[in-house]
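quick one, 114 residues, struct below
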Amino acid sequence: QVQLVESGGGFVRAGGSLRLSCVAFGFTLSTYDMTWYRRLPGKGRELVAAITTTGGMTTYGDSVKGRFTIARDNVKNTLYLEMNILKPEDTAVYYCHPDQTPYWGQGTQVTVSS
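---
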């Protein structure tokens, strides 16, 4: 059974940092380009960062460039998102997603206070 489990979210003050993890079960994560998305309160889904299968290329949303870093460990079947200099507008539920698949995890809540 395919499962994606995000973790690492929490409550942090502005300027702080968090590291999100996404562990894949039931499939080989290295097969897929991966993307972190977030759903902001009252808004739609937004692309945060994306990474190719080997990690050779990364893409970031304009609002997180220079602050967030996406990485992957294919041996551990895990995707990461290092988030620094967090802002209140980063408050959202964060999801990992293997591109071109129907698979989504339950998400992890990040709340940033001012």
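The chain has a mean pLDDT of 96.
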